[in-house]
Amino acid sequence: MDSLEQVEGLLFVAGDEGISVAEIAAATDFDKPAVQGLLEDLAQKYDHDPSSSLALMQTDERYRLVTKANIASVIHRYFTAPLTTALSQASLEVLAIIAYKQPVTRIAVDEIRGVHSAATIQRLVLHNLIETKGRADEPGRPYLYVTTDYFLNYFGLTTLTDLPPLVTADALNALQAQKEETVPLMPQVNSSQFKLDQEIMDIDKGESHG
């Protein structure tokens, strides 16, 4: 198994919370200097590959994958496109887990579903169905997610106690189907947030060269 492949895979599954050198070392059995070198190699690989949409960002000793600034408009259109159909099965699964387990981290959602959920969670946040509420007291201090008042409105509920005892994607799908009127999903997005990662990267690079 290629060393860069292992590090890149860990960065991918770490998602928005990122991952530290120590965590990568523990997962791969590489020593910390070797991990640091691999991260630098990976960053250069992304920087020098014009066909890659990815970049590596370091913040507070944690590393995470981000998309390059030149495709920000494409990412923005994807996440803010109005939903003209019912929520997808993936969205319903994530909503069911968060509704039942809240507050819950993205990593916990991933573990329950068995697949990566970062993109689905981000889109649900932008459509105001879920929101962050503090951080978990665990390594990396990941965000905790909860449902919003708009979630209740969208599914025609008054309180969370109106949900079935065990929330499932099928249960939410049934609630969605039985609504008398469709409540539109209103994106709550500021286009500037899609430039934030690149701005932080530019600041970090400037400080490192200063």
TrEMBL record:
Matching HAMAP family: ScpB
Localization: Cytoplasm
Protein name per Swiss-Prot or TrEMBL: Segregation and condensation protein B
Keywords, in A-Z order: Cell cycle, Cell division, Chromosome partition, Cytoplasm
GO cellular component: cytoplasm
Gene3D superfamilies documented for this protein: Winged helix-like DNA-binding domain superfamily/Winged helix DNA-binding domain
Keyword Phosphoprotein attached: no
NCBIfam families from the UniProt entry: SMC-Scp complex subunit ScpB
The keyword tRNA processing is assigned to this record: no
Purpose: Participates in chromosomal partition during cell division. May act via the formation of a condensin-like complex containing Smc and ScpA that pull DNA away from mid-cell into both cell halves.
Gene Ontology annotations of biological process type: cell division; chromosome separation; DNA replication
